[in-house]
Amino acid sequence: MSARTARTRLLAASTIALTAFALTACGTGSGVRDEGPSAAARSSARPSDPAADGGATAKPAGTGTTTGSTNGSKGTGTTTGSSGGSTGKNGAGSTGGSGDSAGKTGAGTGTRNVACDGATTRTSATVVSRPLNHLLLTVTNTGAKNCDLTGYPIARFGEAQSVPPVAEETHPQAVVTLAPGESGYAGVLLSAADGSGGNGYTARTLEIGFAAEGRTARPALPAKGVYVDDKLTVTYWQQGLDDALAY
């Protein structure tokens, strides 16, 4: 064998030995090299850490986010979200609605009656023996409902151009209300008992007006009429007869 042939065989043997060594050290038996998980796989498999990433923690839908300040013992805050409102910790949130049932009807008050006038009452005028020179006016409710007899009689005697004043001290404590068939009263001082009055005359007719505008009344006077002077005064309408004649 020549020297050239010997070198060729030696080179071939060395090549085979190197190839076998490489397969033994680096191979997996299947011809594929295993370098572990890829960088992309490691990144997707790592759990998210919102605190480390600086992001906000995800919340269930509809719970909203509540923020508030604790200035003092009671905080105030604003609640937002798709659930229609909730109460936040340390803050007052929305309640989802409010009611205002109280006060709709308001405090209960009585209904005022219609005013008494000549259309629903009957008025009479009676001269009394005591007190002297006094006339008693009686108004009786002839209607089917209660009526209020307010103020005082607007009395016009004869052809007088003015009406007598009212004695303020006779003002009643409450409005005089007349039920059907019930009567109210007023007294009239016709003239001074001691004769100190002036401008006296005899009146044969009387017209009574009421505080509320309405029909007047024309009670009959005695046939001889009544004597009046400038002391002529009336009282407020009263619930009782005695109160009407106390002045």
Strands, helices and their partners?
Elements: H1 3-26, H2 39-45, H3 50-53, E1 65-69, E2 76-80, E3 114-115, E4 121-128, E5 134-141, E6 147-149, E7 154-157, E8 176-178, E9 183-189, E10 201-203, E11 206-209, E12 226-228, E13 233-234, H4 241-244
Parallel strand pairs: 3-6
Antiparallel strand pairs: 1-2, 4-5, 5-9, 6-8, 7-11, 9-13, 10-12
What can you see in these coordinates?
The N and C termini lie far apart (173 Å). A four-stranded antiparallel sheet has the order 4-5-9-13. The longest helix has 24 residues, at 3-26. By secondary structure, the chain is α+β, with helices and mostly antiparallel strands. It is globular, with a radius of gyration of 56 Å. Mean pLDDT is 72; it is low at 19-110. The protein has four helices and 13 strands. It has a domain at 114-244. β1 and β2 (76-80) form a beta hairpin.
Tags for this entry?
single chain; 247 residues; alpha+beta; 4-stranded antiparallel beta sheet; 3-stranded mixed beta sheet; 16% helix; globular
Approximately how much helix is present in the residues?
10-25%
Strand content: 15-25%
Q: How many DSSP H or I helices?
A: 4
Task: List the secondary-structure elements in sequence, H or E.
Answer: HHHEEEEEEEEEEEEEH
Strand order of the largest sheet: 4-5-9-13
Tell me the major beta sheet. 4 strands, antiparallel
Q: Over all CA atoms, what is the radius of gyration? A: 56 Å
The counted number of beta strands is: 13
Mean pLDDT: 72
Shape: globular
First-to-last CA distance: 173 Å
Give the low-confidence spans.
19-110
SS-based structural class?
alpha+beta
